[in-house]
């Protein structure tokens, strides 16, 4: 189904944060590791002290970082800071802590391969700082439908599940080349892909440019759709940028498409700024989520538990 709406504005909140909190027990006891049977001993420090009042974030332009700053205000977490870096740095820190069963809080989102690799949980967000379930939208430049109608039809038909995307993400994180991992998924899901391409005529070398942020989810989707369009005769260019430049490029026409439109909350700020210069082609996935995530071995369930 094609969704062709021009976004004129959203509330300026951002989403995409997943936090991991510290092992918790009584605040007056010392943190200890598991005993011989693997049972966790009670923590003697507060969660904040255990993680040095730090939430491990990603790139500063990501909507989830804005949402995390908002959460710190909403929950009066004055002592806490959010470190900036990259998605890769965040997952590396998570792996290091997880392997040692140490406390950690990170910004996170699903779909993401980390939920397949590790036992993790979102912290409850009673204040709604991270919003509710969102959607991933395919967003194109104005005039794309007229200029590249065959590609536009595929993009408007494009819809898949979190499980579909996870198959590609896990293969990539296990060492496979993103383009190869994407093609493996296509080969195993020909019926699904044929629904997107049904009735679409092939082209002869027409060019189309995608911009994407190096988030694992977007790497998976962009490589997959690029392969599908190449099979139809397109010459596909993919350029990695940060979140702000990604929207800017599509809005000013220097790029054609982005597949990482997290709406209505996470990328609300970008849609408020560029919405009248963008074409919302359609929804590729529903019920996606952002927030703070922790390993399940941590004795914490809510962002409110970070208060002292």
Would you write up a description of this structure?
The termini are far apart. With 308 residues, the protein is of the alpha/beta class. It is 35% helix and 19% strand. The chain has twelve helices and nine strands.
The coarse silhouette is globular
The largest sheet, given as strand count, sense and whether it forms a barrel, is: 5 strands, antiparallel
Question: How much helical structure, as a percent, in the residues?
Answer: 25-40%
Distance between the termini: 49 Å
Keywords:
308 residues, alpha/beta, 5-stranded antiparallel β-sheet, two-stranded parallel sheet, 35% helix
In short:
By secondary structure, the chain is of the alpha/beta class.
List the helices and strands and how they pair.
Elements: H1 47-50, E1 54-56, H2 63-74, E2 81-83, H3 87-99, E3 106-110, H4 114-117, E4 120-122, E5 134-141, H5 144-147, H6 149-157, H7 162-173, H8 178-188, H9 190-197, E6 207-212, H10 216-231, E7 235-240, H11 243-251, E8 257-263, H12 268-274, E9 278-295
Parallel strand pairs: 1-2, 6-7
Antiparallel strand pairs: 3-9, 4-9, 5-8, 5-9
Helix pairs in contact: 7-8, 7-10, 8-10
């Amino acid at each position: 189904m094609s969704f062709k709406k021009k976004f004129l504005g959203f509330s300026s909140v951002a989403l995409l944060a997943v936090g991991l909190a510290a092992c918790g027990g009584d605040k007056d006891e010392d943190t200890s590791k598991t005993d011989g049977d693997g049972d966790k001993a009670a923590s003697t420090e507060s969660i904040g002290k255990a993680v040095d009042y730090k939430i491990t974030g990603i790139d500063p332009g990501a909507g989830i970082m804005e949402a995390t700053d908002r959460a710190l205000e909403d929950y009066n977490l004055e002592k806490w800071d959010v470190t900036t870096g990259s998605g890769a740095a965040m997952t590396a820190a998570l792996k290091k802590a997880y392997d040692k069963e140490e406390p950690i809080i990170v910004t996170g989102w699903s779909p993401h391969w980390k939920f397949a690799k590790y036992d993790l949980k979102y912290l409850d967000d009673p204040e709604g700082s991270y919003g509710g379930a969102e959607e991933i939208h395919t967003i194109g430049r104005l005039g794309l439908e007229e200029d590249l109608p065959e590609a536009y039809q595929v993009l408007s038909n494009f819809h898949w599940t979190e499980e579909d995307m996870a198959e590609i993400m896990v293969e990539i994180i296990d060492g496979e080349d993103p383009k190869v991992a994407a093609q493996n998924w296509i080969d195993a899901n020909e019926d699904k892909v044929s629904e997107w391409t049904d009735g679409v005529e092939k082209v002869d070398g027409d060019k189309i440019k995608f911009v994407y942020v190096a988030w694992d989810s977007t790497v998976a989707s962009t490589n997959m759709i690029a392969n599908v369009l190449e099979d139809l005769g397109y010459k596909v260019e993919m350029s990695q940028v940060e979140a702000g430049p990604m929207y800017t490029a599509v809005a000013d026409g220097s790029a054609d498409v982005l597949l990482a439109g997290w709406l209505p909350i996470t990328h609300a700020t970008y849609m408020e700024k560029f919405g009248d210069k963008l074409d919302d082609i359609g929804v590729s996935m529903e019920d996606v989520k952002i927030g703070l995530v922790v390993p399940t071995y941590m004795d914490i369930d809510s962002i409110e538990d970070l208060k002292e």
